[in-house]
Amino acid sequence: MAPGIPPAMDRPHFIGIGGAGMSGIAKILAQRGATVAGSDAKDSETVDALRARGVAVHIGHAAEHLAADATCVVVSSAIRADNPELTRAAERGIPVVHRSDALASLMDGLRPLAVAGTHGKTTTTSMLAVSLSTLGLHPSYAIGGDLDEPGSNADHGDGEIFVAEADESDRSFHKYAPEVAIVLNVELDHHANYASMDEIYASFETFAARIVPGGTLVVSADHEGARELTRRLREQGAPARVVTYGDAPDADVRVLSVVAQGLKSEVTVLLDGEQLTFTVSVPGRHYAHNAVAALAAGAALGIPAADLAPALASYTGVKRRLQLKGEQAGVQVIDSYAHHPTEMAADLEAMRAAAGDARILVLFQPHLFSRTQELGKEMGQALALADASVVLDIYPAREDPIAGVTSALIIDAARAAGADVRAAHDKVTAPEVLAGMAKPGDLVLTMGAGDVTDLGPRILDRLAE
């Protein structure tokens, strides 16, 4: 049986409980029997799913929302120091627990498998959660996105494995001590917290050093940053066993082929001298490689690869990762969470391979001023892979504006790369613009990590009209 409620977390209060990471921890604690409460800026399907599990959720942030008998307050790095509930907690002497510490405490006594990397964490974590569940292993898991319905980003299972998405953005993945860890790729991102690639490498080295003695690090053999991380770890005499995967001839788990089959792929790998062929039920070579990483990690936990490989086919996607939102007037609308240039290019290439001669139109919303300042040119170049694009204003999330940093940086770079791109400053009229551009047979992608996802259904409504 899995452990119970961690100490001092029997009556937790979550600030920003509707967030992907926070809601998952809240759900697991509620399933374990804790009395969970929290607040969020607005109502959402995730909030409704938490309420259905008995979680008390207040809308808006106010000091009176914090119950007098709360045993701790859980926060993420996005919560500002002047939040009234956080201020009230300090006045009452209620302990404040970071989200990563709360998640780490949920893994105590289990066999943690942590998935890290600049891109692909949510997909790979989801693949493991679904396939291990299919095999009847009843894992616990905490994911940065919903599998098939609101609230499905986490679950308390009675098995011994806990699969968790490990976030490097604020170095919170240093809190975990996994038996098996995956590093999918290593790139410079999260510019507000990392000033250089050396800082990024140092952060991932710290994460790898947290793997328990006798544990395993599964790492890409293809990605330049991941290979450099492996070189550094081996030079330091890393305590964990290192297993590489990918197309590279020196990979321990070798990808022999990835054959596109519409919106699926057939993947053949060589693992421990055995050749395995299995289906990945989502399009794109990068998703196939995520599945191979999951396969290698499961094998490191002692799960027979011959069993896990076919079980991976039961994963059919996660919300916001090339998720089909619907079809109207012969136009399919697909939602993509891609917000880093590498992710944008990968998703557009995957859709190009699956779409054949169909036109690909993109409604893109940049995420964060700091990321746009550093990578705006590369974002514009990625958009050149689409047939036409509309770029919204920057979604600020937790950041304040930076002088001179606007979506124009991306638009100018896209046009310089030969792209057909235009600006849209109004999210109310943007769906009408996309619907007016689309013709039967086209694919429309809403792309970005902000609230652009809300515009997919509106585009479908306009197409229906």
Q: Can you offer a commentary on this structure?
A:
This protein starts with 11 loop residues before the first strand and ends with a helix. The model has no long low-confidence stretch (mean pLDDT 92). The protein contains 14 helices and 21 strands. It has 465 residues and is of the alpha/beta class.
Number of domains: 3
User: Which secondary-structure class do the elements indicate?
Assistant: alpha/beta
Tell me the CATH architecture of the largest domain.
Answer: 3-Layer(aba) Sandwich
What is the end-to-end distance? Answer: 54 Å
The whole-number mean of residue pLDDT values reads 92
Count of separate DSSP helical elements: 14
Radius of gyration: 22 Å
The parts where pLDDT drops under 50 for at least 5 residues are none
Spatially, the strands of the biggest sheet line up as: 8-7-9-6-10-11-12-13-14-15
What is the 3D form?
Answer: globular
Could you name the CATH homologous superfamily of the largest domain?
Answer: Mur-like, catalytic domain
Main sheet characteristics: 10 strands, mixed
User: β content, as a range?
Assistant: 15-25%
